Amino acid sequence: MARTTDVRPIIKLRSTGGSGYTYVTRKNRRNDPDRMVIRKYDPVLRRHVDFREER
């Protein structure tokens, strides 16, 4: 019955700033079928940078 893993897989968001920092989150494949790009805080660089989805 638990088909939430099909619709909402776990993904890694890797920093584009070159620090190697990652966030782990879930996404809805129906709403976001392409790779996600989110602007989040990178504590290594101490500023906001784009984080891209990594598979």
Automatic annotation (TrEMBL):
PROSITE patterns: RIBOSOMAL_L33. It comes from the Bacteria. The keyword Transmembrane helix does not apply. The keyword Ribonucleoprotein applies. GO terms for cellular component: ribosome. Belongs to the bacterial ribosomal protein bL33 family. This is Large ribosomal subunit protein bL33. It comes from Kineococcus gynurae.
